[in-house]
Amino acid sequence: MTGQPSPESPPRALRLHGTIARKLGIAIVSGRYRPGDLLDGEIAASEQLAVSRTAYREAVRILAAKGLVDARPKVGTRINARSQWNLLDPQVLEWTFESEPDVQLLNSLFELRNAVESAAAGLAAQRRSAGHLKAMRAALSGMATHTLATDTGRQADLDFHSALLDATDNPYIISLTSGVCAAIRTTTIFKQRRGPLRRDPLPDHRRVFDAIAEKDSQKAQRAMSELIALARADMPRSRRRQRGRTARRPGVRSL
Questions:
Q1: What is residue 39's DSSP assignment?
Q2: Would you write out the chain's pLDDT as a tens digit for each of its 255 residues?
Q3: Which residues contact 205 (CB under 8 A, 6 or more apart)?
């Protein structure tokens, strides 16, 4: 019927505001837009991007939900300080590694993994069930069969870490699974952007599994800490030493 939106309209709108959010998100996390900067107003920004005001508004809502911006009437859309960003949000992580994160941020991410996962491995050794061991064993088999060069192999890696966190039987640690797995997935893909992995990480995972199976908490914690240290060492050398101040870009107003 004339005047009614076509069935394709909602998906297209969803893709559009998601694309805008991604473009702006990458610009924010890469440092091209700085904390405290004000984005252009809704009318000017939508015209510049050649999109509807509705699509732009929805994109800003996505960014606000992730803590990247603060949008207020009569004030505008301000870039938040990094301390307010949801850094473990899967999309924020993806945007961060779209270019190249600075060394300090990269080190901080692996510090978080070490703090959470090493302790989790120790708890998992005390509390794991036969079901957890079965799940981790199946994940190791998947990693061996498919390797981390494939989506299936990378998913098996995530399954291993998810089962380990679940084995802690600690709901607060388990709630970190999404963020931890997003960090693992994103950094694994980032490593392979310039070529194949230089080292097979499967033996590192097997050592963690063996310690958990043996119910040796200290051994499990050490093995996980070593796994994460080696994973950090495998990362390509970053050319970005720190978050530098960049030239102000069109479409952004500094306070």
A1: E
A2: 444 444 444 445 458 888 999 999 999 999 999 999 999 888 888 888 888 889 999 999 999 999 999 998 878 899 999 999 999 999 999 999 998 888 999 999 999 999 999 999 999 999 999 999 999 999 999 999 999 999 999 999 999 999 999 999 999 999 999 999 999 999 999 999 878 888 899 999 999 999 999 999 999 999 999 999 999 999 987 655 554 444 444 345 433
A3: 140, 143, 157, 160, 227
Non-local CB neighbours of 248 within 8 Å, separated by 6+ positions: 34, 37, 254
Within 10 angstroms of residue 72's Cβ, the number of other Cβ atoms is 10
Phi, psi of 72 (to 5 degrees): -130, 140
Whole-angstrom distance, CA of residue 165 vs CA of residue 117: 7
Domains of the chain: 10-86 (1.10.10.10), 92-233 (1.20.120.530)
**Rg (Cα) of the chain, in Å, rounded?**
21
Q: Which helix (H) or strand (E) holds 54?
A: helix 53-65
